[in-house]
Amino acid sequence: MATKSPRLFVLRHAHSSWALPGQRDHQRVLDERGRRDAERLADELKDEAIEIDSVLCSTAARARETFEIAKPAFARIGKTTFTDDLYAFGPEAYVAAIEAETDASTILVVGHNPMIEDFALSLVGTDSKAYQKLREGLPTCGFAEFACEDGFATMAKGGASLSRLLLPREMA
């Protein structure tokens, strides 16, 4: 039986409301547009029977809410880890979190800009069309799928290829 190359799914949290007086940034939730975009993403993915071995999600309310809305679109969700590292630290925290998932062949990461966009850019070679497309930005609720032919260990050195990029404005 042939084994599939590892796949990485990167999801920027959906559009959120501004913080209310006295509310911390970490507590901000999705606004109506964000919920609608996350539902449209789930509708776009639901027939694909994607199985996720491991989810790495920021602890921020808007990231968790985005994940909860998108979650039913996946055929199977394995281990789910909520971590402050994806909220508070840079793209290297995303790399470290993924490299720690040694038993996973499909990983979904739900995080924030600018870190998640910088992380996604680091996955592909700078002279690639994928890099140019990603440089246009990963908007809220943007979803990118990467194939990591040589495994997750080489992905952060430009060793991944962008399989697809779903943007909210392009979803029905």
UniProtKB/TrEMBL annotation:
Pfam families: His_Phos_1. SMART domains: PGAM (SM00855). PANTHER family: OS09G0287300 PROTEIN. This is Histidine phosphatase family protein.
